[in-house]
Design goal:
alpha+beta; single chain; 2 domains; Immunoglobulin-like; eight-stranded antiparallel sheet; 135 residues
Amino acid sequence: MHRPKRSRRGTSAVFAVVLLVIITFAFGIVFFNFVMSNVNFAANTFNTQMAALLLKSFTINATHVIAYVQNTGSALIEISSAYVNGLVTTLTALVQIAPNAIGEAILEGNFLSGNTYTIKLANIFNTEVSFQASF
């Protein structure tokens, strides 16, 4: 028996649709894995960078601000720069804080009573802690 032309065209269309569905499904799995790996990497990086420094308390007087900072990360942190209202200020000593320890950062300056100061402490990896101190 001879097949009519109509049935041959239908079979190739079915094969084409099945092939497109399989290709789409395969690319969907690859794309999902790619996106999820990037999302997990970003979440882990964000959590480790944001949870590295934690302000415990601070005191302020006319000449100094003393900030007690906890290192919640897993590596030694060295506070290398300090800013008061966006201007670089002097740290009295190098501040190194071991993991899960509390360190003391002493900033020198002239602080006037009745004012509020925005203070930022940062390390060389740009992990920072910011707070406002009123005197």
